[in-house]
Amino acid sequence: MQSKFKSIQNDQLFLLPPNIEEFIPEGHLARVISEIVDTFDTRKIEEQYSYQGQKSYHPKILIKLWVYGYATGTLSGRKIAMKCETDTAYMYLSSMYRPDFRTINDFRKDNVKSFEGYFVAVIKLCRELGMANVGTIALDGTKIRANASAKQMRDKVMYTQWLKEVEDQLAALTQQADALNDTEEQTLTNQRGDEIPKEIRQKETLRKKIKQAIEELKDRDGERTNLTDKDVRLIKSAGHIKPNYNCQGAVTRDGIIVAAYVSNNASDKEQLTPLVNQAETNTGKQVENILADSGYSSYANYEWLEQQQKTAYIPDQDYEHRNRLKAEPYDKSNFTYHPQNDNYTCPQGKELVLDEIVFHRTRKQKLRIYKGTQCSNCPVKSDCTSAKVRQINQDIREPLREKARNLLDSPLGKLIYKQRMNMIEPIWGNIKFNKKITMFHLRGLAKVNAEWILMAIGNNIQKLMARKEKLKIAV
Questions:
Q1: Domains in the chain, ordered, with CATH?
Q2: 327 falls in which pLDDT band (50, 70, 90)?
Q3: How many Å apart are CA 47 and CA 42, to the nearest integer?
Q4: pLDDT at residue 471 above 70?
Q5: Which of 159, 300, 306, 433 has the most beta carbons within 10 angstroms of its beta carbon?
Q6: Can you count the helices (H) and strands (E) in the chain?
Q7: Per-residue pLDDT tens digits for 296-312
Q8: What are the CA-CA distances from residue 285 to residues 85, 133, 280, 363 (Å)?
Q9: Cα–Cα distance for residue pair 205/203, rounded to 1 Å
């Protein structure tokens, strides 16, 4: 009887060996990654290997596996090792070898600094194709979970209490072990008799870790650290405070990440300068326009950008709430400053004059203090201030903030600033939701930074691949 289907032939033999090039189609992401990684200079890594013993896998094979893994959302060495046996893309990238997961994991762990160089190499390749123009860049940070439990986050006091509990348990276990040795020496015929029980070894290791954590927190009262990852901090994300890392990025209009690193500081204010500097170093070009949300605003940042002659499209925190603040009749925003006279007038038309200039050490601000001259007889004084006279503090750099506000309020500024969300938010969404990368696999700031760099490399190669496809269509 004639069949409607092709026969199932799992045991069919090949007449000729299959060509590995036929495993994946032309233009596949794995093929593009392979071609790009083949251009990387891996001599420094190769020098770490010896001619003695079994031959090792070439570093480029392992780099290809990791770049493809992070580009597609596979961050586990075990999963990559399994895919080298079952997934044709991984089989192609591994040249049909089947590296053990330990070999794959050790390579990532041992070469964290090398990935930064390959990140720059991909950016240069993008620039050769007319991409990664840093005339305008968007800055943003996104929080990704650390590979550490929130239950293990403790401060110095909590660690001290835990240490006492562990030492008490250790003393009890040691006493039990001594008693057991005294009564059951005859059962140790196949042992030396001086082995340390497993439970005691574990408690000793734990005690050493706790002591180390206490030493690290000696001069940091109130701060918490984690036994499994000492670099992680509690950072708020999506309304929840968890052990997170603050992942920073600078992105161009065509979606190329030109600066990327990980911080354990919850604030973005301190990240603007290093992001811009890294973007300029990686591309060899000067940044002109910077788009960022209010998390990057500070007087220090506005001042630095002015000195560097860069245009800042960065709203301050009050800018976003200014309509609400203006609704409060005696908020500072309703007082009018007169530069020509260097004074303020209040909503009642009364004058506030410069009283003194002080330096605020904690906030590192130089402040001009203006005080009211006619407050004593003012009928709304109780609504305006509870002090003897109304006072307004003006940072000496406030004109720079006003300049940024005026720029954002201009028609051109509004159009330019709208681009920020489209430039950088889709990239974070692709990483966290499409690729489902919501937690790091490694621990420690340096290793986590390498993971973030691998994500950036994967993103840039995918953008490069899309650009090449557009050029083909255009031709």
A1: 20-111 (no CATH), 136-146+234-314+405-464 (3.30.420.10), 156-180+196-223 (no CATH), 319-397 (no CATH)
A2: confident
A3: 9
A4: no
A5: 159
A6: 16, 13
A7: 999 999 999 999 999 99
A8: 44, 8, 5, 33
A9: 5
